[in-house]
# Entry
Amino acid sequence: MMMAARTGPNHLPEEAISYARMADRTLTFEDNRLASALFGQFDEHLALIEQKLGVETSARGNHVNLSGSAEACANAADVLESLYSRLRKGEHVGLADVDGAIRVASRTGIDQKPLPGLAGLAQITTRRRTITARSANQDAYIRQLEACDLVFGVGPAGTGKTYIAVAYAAALLERGAVDRLILSRPAVEAGERLGFLPGDMKEKVDPYLRPLYDALYDVMAPEKVERGIANNIIEIAPLAFMRGRTLAHAAVILDEAQNCTAMQMKMFLTRLGEGSKMIITGDPSQIDLPDGQKSGLPEALGLLDGVEGVGETRFTAQDVVRHPLVQRIVDAYDARDAERRKT
# Structure
C-alpha cells in the first residue's frame, strides 16, 4: 500500500514547503572600498557569517549574494547592512564586531531580550573609539548605565563588563558629565603571594589594578590618561583607600567586587555622592577571599534587588566576547559547578 505524501497546512508536500522557505538575496553596497572592508581580508567576515548563520555567500566587487533559509538570509543581511552603516560613520569593523553583530541578529544562546535592532544597539563613544554592544546583555548593561546611578555587572570573564564600565566612565569624563574618574579593586591575590613589592605605594598596588589601566588606555589617548592621573582627575586606588571618603561628581568603578567582604561592600556603596555614577563588576564564581570570609557581592545583589535607581545585568557564558575557546572553558566550569551542587 502506497502511503500518501505528508503535507503541511497549505496541503503542499513538506519538500515543497522546505524549498519555499529557502531564499536567495543580493545586497549591493555603494562604496567599493567600504564593501571590501565589510567583507574582510580574503572574505573572512563573510566566512564567519556563513559559519555562524548557516548561509552561503558569494561576493563580487561591491555585491554579495546570500543563499539559505529565509530567516538566515534576513539575519545575514541585517548583519552586513548594520556593519556597513558603521563603516560609513568611520568606525573600524573587525572579526569581533562581526561576531557581535551575528550574536545579536541571531539571538543565539541569549534570553530573547527585546532589542531595537542592530542599527539601534547601544553605543559608548569616546574621542578615541566607539564601543557598540555585542550581545543583548551588553546592550541592556549600557542602557542601565545611562538610566541608573548604581549598576552591577556580574558574570564570567570575557563578557566585557569591566571594559564597558571603564569606557562609559571615560565617556562621562570627556563630555564633562563628571569631574573625576575613580577606579578601584580589592587588593586580593588570585592564588599567588606577591610578597613585598619594591617602590612607592602606587608601584606596589599597580599589579592589582593593571586590567583597569589596560581598559583605560584602550578607550582614551595615553597622554590624556597620564595627564589625568598626574592631575588627580583620574584616580586608580585599592579599595582600602575608599574608607571615609564621599565620592561626589565622579564616575566610580569597583572591579573584582566578588573579592570584597560584606563590610567592605557596604563601605564602598555608601561612598556614593551627589552627581556620581557607581559601577560594580565581579564574577561570583571566582572568589579569592581566604577561607571563612564571605563575599559581599552576592549579599549586595540580594539586598538591593528591586531598589529604585539600582540596575543589574547578569552576563552568561554566551556573552563571552574573547576567543571562542574562553566561552567553552566557562561552559565546562559551569557544568562542573552544576554537578557539584546536585551532590
Remarks:
- The mean pLDDT is 82.
